[in-house]
TrEMBL record:
This is Nischarin. GO terms for molecular function: integrin binding; phosphatidylinositol binding. GO terms for cellular component: cytoplasm. The lineage of its organism: Eukaryota, Metazoa, Chordata, Craniata, Vertebrata. SUPFAM superfamilies: Outer arm dynein light chain 1 (SSF52075), PX domain (SSF64268). The keyword Nucleotidyltransferase does not apply. Pfam families: LRR_8, PH_NISCH_C, PX.
């Protein structure tokens, strides 16, 4: 690199020195020395004693004349005349010394005049000496090394000289030490400064320096330098991964393409262009992080074409006003544009395709319209902008992967409850969004649900108004789609208007019949927060009271006497029907009600104010059982119960008030009991002198508030009895003590539900005959067991309450009629009138066929989406209707979370399409001919982990690797589901994993292993498994034999016996071990197997790969994944220096055959003691004498012994029995080995019942007659044929039971003759098979002095 600096001194520039003055410090004089080297000058201060000390050293080292230095003076040493005279003499002394040594200044003189700080020879020599002593330690430590621009300038100037690298004769100051160090240095920091250096006139910003001497740099940080003085930066392209430039550049081009100053037209290499170019510039191939924050950059220029691999880009604290040219950065994941001058963003998605973290804080943004299509965005910082309108959040509310959002210090933050209003824009994803660093609370989520209900009500009204226009609008579909659904939305063909939705026809009879069984979500918006509703309600109540001529001790309409409108008159389920009166509150006279009122009571004149409103589902028990949605209103003096007359939910306040009817008005003094019957789920009301009892169901918080509002006003004669303080204690009283010992933890739920019997429908043949719904579910085992339906005519069950525990789905069946007839004060009433049925969560999953693929919107479709869940308990199909709004979504969220936390084997359903592609178990059914829906579309009610685009569309190299891993060994027996998995190719593997297996956020499939597995709980059952390693967990997809591995009772195991004949679905079993629960990994001898150990006995699994290469690859991938799990780089700005994040690499350490990984997981390898124990066991069996020192184990391999079953056909004539084969220098042994129990887990209280090794057979190598290879007995098996002449010393300690089984097989096998023993051995691993043959042949040749006969068969 050519460097011109005419204004700077040459290394051989004249050195001049003069003493420009002196000053008195305490009692001595200090002389001020000015040193000039070329154009550079600086000052040094010394007293006379310093000169004297220098002179003595020079007289010794350089033989300087002793009388050259002016002599000491004792008297009058500080007198002015003496000081001036000595000043001239000392100046002459110093100049004489400099003239004496014109080329190489002695070190003591150099240090005296501060040459090591300001003069290039001295600077270079000092640096070389420092690196001579510390260079190796600095390189080994891998820490950041700091070099100032002046030091780099000195080295650069030295290299331009035609002189030896060690001019002054001091080997320690050789320039070679610097060059050796810079060639190997990896982390460099160059801090410049604006002011002059020290006492000199040297300005570092004017000193050019060359970076081409650095050959291995990974990271460099430069600050306070001028871009023009940095030379040789492009020479770092081959290695540099992280580049940071601060306070140094006015454009990106002068840093990334300094060559642009010489070449007007340039293009990056590898780009085809028709334009004339003068230069092809190499790209920064290794650069992944570029930090150019705190510079003076005004635009993002075309120089970014040269950094295509950059993932982290920081351009904060610059002067940018536009976002441009970033489309060239295909790999960009994290972008920081904070504290710039951005005012508007337009179509940013065209430039930031795969962005995950975007920091836009400290700008001047007023709108977010340009961010609406950043579908991969996870973290977004918009703090300190000018965002004032909440509607702007709609632009980012549809982003499917957004998890962290910051809006602090924006004008919108002063809006009351702005947090909940912002979160409401995210609809169903509100709970997943962390706003301003604070996790969303349950209270906020409740408020969000109310806001959503209000919004849906408005949308419903708008849709009804638009129905005449035939406009189909999907409702909230984009809010809950996983991120790739948004991309695939272009593939959707919206159903034509002429084709009706299948589900609309199927559910139409149910919507009408079930209107009394659920509370419409739109009603939730009419609460005490809606002041207009409260005002009208108060006015209606008081107006009705004033119109009456008497006060109202107890006013009610008939709930049981009128059933003209009931769709099922007289069956006891729909008796609570609409009263056949013309009353409209506030619009007509209440003549019907007046007829039912006593005439002897007087009217009260006080105004009744509404204190609280509660929407609930009310079950009333009088002459029969009736149920319908009700509005419970607490006023100052009375309790009022309303219901709505219309079957269609009211969307406006006017509609609601027109359809509101009064069921009950009762003063607090007339209430006999008002108490919780089921904690947090239901309270009941009983009025004096009436037999009817009302049960109200709503959410826990609302019930508690209403209860605390009413109870102080009620004078209960009987003391209120609450069976238990909370739901957990309440449920526990129904269970045996041993049932509750499974650490059930907190009980969730308490949802009021009804079961639908779809098979008995007679109102619409489409429902009964459609294959989407199960037929005759009333006769199925589960339904008949819990007695859901009392008669074949009923399509709905009695109301029940659904609870979730950590391992069970609990159904509480309450006989409300019996409860109502009992005395409310009895504590055991609910216990004696109820029972609980428990279904294991591990056998329960969402019905694979529960979701319609159409997106048309109708009342029936909306009812299904908001209230209906179809479950599969084993092979039973259960259709559940949730009575209360949001209960369904709460249940699905809790159900999914609890099921993912199960530490036991659970069922999974794999959906198979015609193409063989697997779909998620809760996906829609295949679309009809009139509409095409992408196979990846997920129903909005099923909570699935959110994925980023990089996970859904992984690199081709990863897909290729997974395809190579997905090769199932031929000896494994596979069920239908495992066979289907083994046939998946390419992208199908990734989609299968995310749709069917993945349980956590943003986990990526990394490795597939086909192997046999053993569970600690069932050490005798070896089952085939497909092991999937992700970045968060290890998933074991098990063969059908896993049904015998569960620790459930025999009653519960009935759920495992799947009776589905549906070819669209395959059911399998899955066990999940989360990596955060992984404690240790035990690696078997010769890498033949490994065991993963979790915190409990249920989480200990051995994988018998029987293949050292397969084990090695899996463990290698596991260690890599654990490293990622341990430390994920934070996308937010870190307070630490950024080198500390990348420079300190934490690696594991090996102690006593244990590799303690940086994630704290132990990898335990076989110790010498373990191999010694095995050697002792086989040696002891071999001979009674102590084994010789030459006895050792040559090979340990897991094999199968092939047994021929006589009388079978050719295809099924062999049985594989797992064995361990040990090859020593003289013998071959077969053993049964316990692969799962050893080494003992920490919680084991006693040793296992079986020994680790049990010797079953042994032969001497010298007795081997021949080896048969081929396919005749078993493909690729080896048959070892021994002469049956055991020596007197062989196996003399073995008892006969060791040969009980193998003895019968002594003459069986291929060509078995009398006097021969055939061992038919199948070695699964090809490498192990070749190693066994070669070692066996070598030992046989050593013992028998000839080659081993090997014969090929079949």
């Amino acid at each position: 690199v050519k460097m011109d600096a005419p204004h700077l001194p040459e290394p051989c520039a004249e050195k001049r020195v003069r003493i420009i003055g002196s000053e008195l410090v305490e009692s001595y004089t200090v002389y001020i020395i000015e040193v000039n080297v070329g154009d550079h000058s600086w000052t040094v201060k010394h007293r006379y004693s310093d000169f004297h000390e220098l002179h003595e050293k020079l007289t010794v080292e350089k033989k300087i004349d002793k009388h050259l230095l002016p002599p000491k003076k004792i008297i009058g040493k500080n007198s002015k005349s003496l000081v001036e005279k000595r000043q001239k003499e000392l100046e002459v002394y110093l100049q004489t010394l400099l003239n004496r040594f014109p080329v190489s200044t002695p070190k003591v003189l150099s240090n005296f005049l501060l040459f090591h700080l300001y003069e290039i020879n001295g600077i270079a020599a000092a640096l070389a000496e420092e690196l001579f002593h510390k260079g190796e330690q600095l390189l080994a430590a891998g820490e950041v090394f700091l070099l100032r621009p002046l030091q780099l300038y000195a080295v650069t100037q030295q290299l331009k000289l035609a002189k030896p690298t060690c001019a002054n004769g001091d080997a320690k100051a050789d320039l070679g030490h610097i060059l050796d160090f810079t060639c190997r240095l990896k982390y460099l920091k160059i801090p410049g400064m604006k002011a002059a250096v020290g006492t000199s006139n040297i300005e570092e910003q004017r000193l050019p320096f060359d970076l081409s001497i650095f050959k291995s740099l990974l990271q460099i940080e430069i600050s306070d330098c001028d871009a023009g003085q940095i030379k040789g930066l492009p020479s770092l392209k081959p290695t540099l991964a992280t580049l940071s430039i601060h306070l140094s550049a006015s454009s990106m081009k002068e840093i990334l393409v300094p060559e642009a100053s010489e070449f007007a037209q340039w293009e990056p290499e590898g780009v085809d262009t028709d334009c004339p170019v003068t230069a092809i510039i190499p790209t920064w191939k290794m650069l992944t992080t570029l930090d150019m924050s705190r510079n003076f950059i005004r635009c993002i220029d075309e120089s970014v074409k040269l950094i295509p691999e950059v993932e982290f880009l920081d351009l904060s604290y610059n002067e940018l006003s536009l976002v441009e040219n970033l489309q060239h950065l295909y790999n960009l994941v994290h972008l920081d544009l904070s504290f710039n001058k951005l005012t508007v963003l337009e179509a940013v998605h065209t430039k930031l395709g795969n962005i995950k973290t975007l920091n836009l804080s400290g700008n001047q943004l007023e709108t977010l319209s340009g961010l609406s299509k950043l579908y991969s965005l996870v973290n977004l910082d918009l703090s300190s902008n000018r965002l004032a309108q909440l509607d702007e959040i709609k632009n980012i509310g549809t982003l499917p992967c957004l998890e962290k959002l910051s809006l602090a210090d924006n004008p919108m933050c002063i809006i009351p409850d702005y947090r909940t209003k912002v979160l409401a824009q995210f609809c169903d994803r509100a709970s997943e969004v962390c706003l301003n660093g604070t996790t969303t609370t349950e209270k906020e989520l409740d408020t969000v649900e109310v806001l959503k209900a209000i919004q849906k009500a408005k949308e419903a009204k708008d849709r009804m108004a638009n129905n005449d226009k035939k406009i189909l609008t999907p409702v909230d579909s984009t809010f809950t789609q996983r991120c790739y659904d948004v991309y695939n939305s272009a593939c959707d063909i919206i159903p034509q208007v002429g084709f009706p939705c299948c589900c609309e026809e199927e559910w139409k009879p149910w919507t009408a019949n079930l209107s009394n069984l659920f509370v419409p979500p739109s009603l939730l918006s009419f609460t005490t927060t809606n002041q207009e509703f409260i005002n009208q309600l108060t006015a209606h109540i008081n107006q009705a009271n004033r119109e009456e001529s008497t006060p109202i001790p107890c006013k009610t309409t008939s709930l049981e006497d009128t059933d003209q409108g009931s769709p099922q008159s007289g069956d006891g389920y729909f008796e609570m029907t609409i009263d056949d009166t013309n009353e409209i509150m506030g619009c007509s006279s209440s003549s019907t009600i007046q007829e039912k009122m006593p005439d002897d009571v007087k009217k009260e004149s006080a105004i009744d104010n509404v204190k609280m409103v509660l929407w609930s589902l009310c079950i009333s028990v009088g002459e029969g059982l009736s149920q319908r949605p009700s509005c419970l209103v607490a006023t100052d003096s009375s309790l009022v119960v309303f219901h709505t007359r219309s079957e269609e939910p009211a969307s406006t306040l006017e509609e609601l008030m027109e359809n509101l009817e009064t069921d009950l008005v009762v003063p607090y003094t007339n209430i006999e009991t008002f108490q919780f019957d089921i904690p947090e789920v239901c309270f009941s009301l009983k009025v004096k002198s009436r037999n009817t009892r009302w049960f109200f169901f709503s959410n826990a918080q609302s019930l508690k508030e209403m209860h605390s509002c009413i109870v102080p006003n009620v004078d209960q004669t009987n003391e209120q009895v609450l069976n238990s303080s909370n739901t957990q204690v309440f449920i526990r009283q129904f269970l045996n003590s041993w049932d509750f010992e499974e650490s059930e933890g907190s009980v969730k739920g308490g949802h009021l539900i009804h079961f639908l019997d779809l098979g008995s429908s007679t109102s619409d043949k489409n429902v009964a005959n459609n294959s989407q719904f199960p037929k005759n579910s009333a006769t199925l085992d589960v339904l008949s067991q819990i007695g859901l339906f009392e008669s074949g005519q009923n399509q709905t069950s009695n109301p029940m309450i659904l609870f979730l525990t950590s391992r069970h789905l609990c159904i509480l069946m309450v006989d409300f009629v019996t409860v109502a007839s009992r005395d409310p004060s009895e504590a055991s009433t609910m216990r004696s009138c109820s029972k609980v049925i428990r279904i294991p969560l591990s056998f329960t999953l969402l019905d694979p066929k529960q979701c319609c693929s159409c997106r048309a919107v109708s009342n029936s479709r909306r009812f299904y989406d908001e209230h209906v869940v179809e479950l599969m308990a084993g092979h039973e199909c259960l259709t559940v209707v949730f009575a209360l709004p949001q209960d369904k979504f709460t249940f699905l969220r809790e159900f999914t979370q609890l099921r993912s936390n199960l530490r036991e084997i659970k069922t999974i359903a794999l959906q198979r399409t015609k193409k063989g592609h697997l779909k998620v178990h809760s996906c829609p059914t295949p679309a009809t001919a009139t509409e095409r829906i992408p196979t990846s579309s997920i129903p909005q009610e099923v909570p699935r982990p959110h994925l980023t685009l990089s996970l859904l569309y992984p690199a081709k190299s990863l897909i290729q690797k997974l395809m190579e891993d997905n090769q199932c060994p031929s000896h494994l027996s596979l069920s239908s589901s495992l066979l289907l998995i083994s046939s998946l190719k390419g992208d199908q593997l990734v989609h299968f994993f995310h749709d069917n297996i993945a349980e956590m956020e943003n986990e990526e499939l990394k490795h597939i292993l086909w192997t046999s597995v053993l569970f600690y709980r069932s050490p005798d059952v070896e089952t085939s498994a497909c092991v999937l390693l992700s970045t968060k967990a290890i998933y074991f997809i098990l063969d059908d034999t896993a049904s015998s591995l569960t620790n459930q009772s025999s009653e519960q195991k009935m759920y495992f016996t799947f009776g589905h004949k549906d070819t669209d679905f395959l059911f399998s079993f899955c066990f999940t071990l989360k990596l955060k629960d992984l404690q240790s990994v035990n690696v078997g001898l010769f890498d033949q197997y490994f065991r993963v150990v979790g915190p409990s006995a249920d989480q200990i699994i051995s994988c018998l790969t029987r293949d050292g290469y397969g084990t090695h690859r899996f463990l290698q991938q596991l260690m890599m994944v654990l490293s990622l799990l341990e430390k994920v780089p934070s996308p937010e700005p870190s307070e630490l220096d950024f080198y500390s994040q990348f420079g300190n690499k934490s690696t594991g350490k090996m102690e006593n055959y244990e590799l303690v990984h940086s994630s704290k997981v132990k990898f335990v390898y076989p110790s010498e003691e373990e191999i010694g124990d095995l050697t002792f066991i086989v040696a002891e069996r071999k001979t009674p004498q102590p084994p010789s020192h030459s006895f050792n184990i040559l090979l340990y391999v897991l094999v199968f012994q092939v047994h021929v079953v006589p009388g079978q056909t050719a295809q099924n004539q062999t049985v594989l029995q797992p064995k361990t084969l040990i090859l020593t220098s003289t013998d071959v042994f077969l053993l049964d080995e316990d692969h799962i129990s050893y080494p003992l887990p920490e919680f084991a209280k006693e040793p296992p019942q079986r020994d680790k090794y049990r010797l079953t057979d042994a032969q001497r190598i010298r007795d081997l007659d021949r080896v048969l290879m081929g396919y005749q007995t078993y493909p690729q098996a080896l048959t070892l044929v021994f002469d049956d002449v055991p020596g007197p010393d062989l196996l003399c300690h073995l008892t006969m039971d060791h040969f009980a089984e193998s003895g019968r097989d002594r003459t069986q096998g291929v060509g078995g003759d009398m006097g021969e023993v055939h061992w038919c051995i199948f070695v699964p691993g090809a490498d192990s098979r070749e190693r066994l043959i070669s070692l066996l042949a070598r030992q046989w040749e050593t013992l028998c002095s000839r080659e081993l006969p090997v014969e090929l068969t079949g």
